[in-house]
Amino acid sequence: MQRSFYSVPLVLAALATLSLASCDDDDEDPAPKPKAAFTFAGGACQTNCPVTFKNTSQNATTYAWDFGDQTTGAQAEAEFAHTYAQAGVYRVKLKALNGSASDTTSQRITVGVASGCTSQIVQVTSHITVPTTWKPCNVYVVTGEVWVSDALTIQPGTVVKFAPNGGLQLRTGGSLAAVGTMAQPIYFTSSKDDAHGGDTNADRGATSPARKDWRHINLNSGNNAQLAYCQFLYGGSDTGSASYTLGVDGVAATIRNCTFAHNSGGSTSKVGALAAGAALAGTIIEDNTFFDNEVPLRITNLFSLDNSNSFQNPQNASQKNDYQGIWVDDTPGKSTALTWAETEVSYVLESTHWDARLTLGAGVIIKQLPDAQMHFGGGSELLARATSAQPIVFTSYKDDAHGGDTNHDASATAPAKKDWYAVLLDGISGSALDHCQFYYGGRNGVVLGLPFSAASVTNCTFARNGADTNVLEAAALDASYAKQGTVVQNNVFYDNIRALSITSSFDLDDSNTFHNPANASEKNQYQGIITYWNTNVSKPSVSWGETEVAYANIQSIDLPTSHTLRLGNNVTVKWLPEREITCRLSPAQLINGNGAGVTFTSYKDDSRGGDSNGNGSANSPSRGDWYGIYYDDNSGEWLQWSNIHYASH
Q1: DSSP string covering 317-345, please?
Q2: Any idea where the PKD domain is (predicted)?
Q3: 67 lies in a domain?
Q4: Are residues 145 and 86 located together in one domain of the fold?
Q5: Which mean pLDDT values do the consecutive 10-residue runs of the chain (649 residues) have?
Q6: Which domain range does residue 78 map to?
Q7: Is position 276 within any domain?
Q8: Is the domain of 226 the same as that of 139?
């Protein structure tokens, strides 16, 4: 066979041609690959106002965003905004796609003004008459008294500064919602405050903020204002009753987790840095902090106050307030059932009138201003149940031993008897006082009065009270007109003018103490129980068991045929002049009247039952000081028991 040597090159040439053709097909331009890219407004100084992103990607048809705050999106716009809920550093990722091809890029963004950054300053000079939102990317400077007649919303992290005459006042139709967060509080402060929002007044630190730099915010119209995680600093420049920083007047408001520091509050008016003395029922004041104010807080008896507020600097417990207390305004005829539980500082009261239940928590301290009294009338009751470890205290405004130096005079004044009037439970039933302490009251002789009321008074202390009045039954605890059902047990009385007065509508056992447990020689001036025998309200059987002091009767006792008086062993019964006991049936109506240690004697007899007439040894008992014991049966005779002393008969 003859072979052709030209066939191989031809085949190779053909193959080469096919190969080249194939390469030409592969080298056609493919679809361009996407390139992910974006920018955002503000750079590292971006605040938590809406962040503006610009998508500068190329060759992409779809996008996948991850904003770093657990939110994602597929925004395809060239420019859009995304709002972060709180400050922080976020990694923002963008994935650009074109078919199966993709590209990813990411950048770190700081939300919240970073160190060295300056926010835009917005001067607020006009009244607010349309819905308005203040954002944290700006510092708002209020230069005068601005009226808010529509909705004003202040976002978390916003700084609001006030010039010397600056203030906000809600008007008809106005409302305020200023709800910050723990990480992003809202600041209301002085234009001189460079620590918040920077050097707004551009004086390079030449001036420093101080109390009374600006006026106030007054919530006196609109719906229930909501304020949370706000800080009120350096306010209260007005005088008198307007020297507050935040006022709640004729409306209800909710104020939680706010700080009031370096404010006025009225050293004379005591209006409070937070002035809620005219707030309405439904107001809530919880978890707030007050320090370095003249007067921290004023409230009214229309809403409750729990134990969640703090009255010291959390960073420095020694930094408190000048007048360390809560002042209370009265609303006669309007009070509602409420609870007071604050224990860090005292409640400071002028005269108050109560028409509904007041419940006091253990450890509460009530300080009364001169001439003040708490009057509980129809429909009200006082529930003051405490413990031996946390008693409830009613005392003088000058008493620094309980609740601290509330009157801000160091030791310039000292508490004394008659500093305030009384707590009066007037014609009501159901009140209960347990482990309460009453000090320095009784301007008219009485510090706790129960006129025409039934109440339980147990484990209480009455010390350093009273006035030496002509009304003999005006004792520290005056139960001389109390109703049946009253209980007086396990109480302590010492250093009072008169300790206790009772009536014949309830029993009295031997559980009360009439001396200072820490000093047995410290007793009461009139060391006895003033007894008012009221035949109109006496219960059929009355029992007296007290043995430490005498029952000093300021009226005669008349026992109807169906009534009895039971005396415990060692009981001493004393009588004022021209007084007697009349048993309408027989001497047996005096149950145990001739029992062991039972004594009937003169009011002047200090040898039995102590100095009941409070005059030391100024006079001595003698025959005829009182009438005696008469039983009105057919014969009508005077008893001649050996335990009857200094009687006429």
Answers
A1: TT---SS-EEEEE--TTT---EEE---SS
A2: 32-118
A3: yes
A4: no
A5: 41 42 50 91 59 93 95 93 78 95 93 64 96 93 96 95 96 94 96 93 92 96 87 94 94 98 94 96 98 98 98 98 97 91 98 97 98 95 99 98 96 97 98 99 97 98 93 93 97 98 97 98 97 82 98 95 96 97 94 98 96 93 97 87 97
A6: 38-111
A7: yes
A8: yes
State the Cα–Cα distance between residues 554 and 178, nearest whole angstrom.
64
pLDDT for the residue numbered 334: 86
Q: What CATH code is carried by the domain that includes residue 48?
A: 2.60.40.10
- The position carrying tokens 């835009």 is 120
DSSP code of residue 85? S
Distance CA 431, CA 454 (A): 7
Last residue of a domain, one of 358, 384, 400: 358
Is residue 629 assigned to a domain?
A: no
Q: Find how far residue 543's CA is from the centre of its chain.
A: 42
What span, in angstroms and rounded, lies between the C-alpha atoms of 326 and 367?
A: 10
Is residue 624 situated within a structural domain? no
**Domain identity same for 213 and 258:** yes
Domains identified in the chain, total number: 2
Residue owning tokens 């106002």 = 49
Residues 6+ apart with CB under 8 A from 308: 286, 287
Q: Exposed e or buried b for every residue in 372-381, given b needs 16+ CB within 10 A?
A: bbbbbbeebb
> What values do phi and psi take at 13, rounded to 5?
-65, -40
| Domain finish residue from 294, 324, 358 | 358
Tokens 């003999």 found at: 472
pLDDT at 46: 56
| Secondary structure class of 232 (helix, strand, coil) | strand
Unique residue bearing structure tokens 């006091």: 360
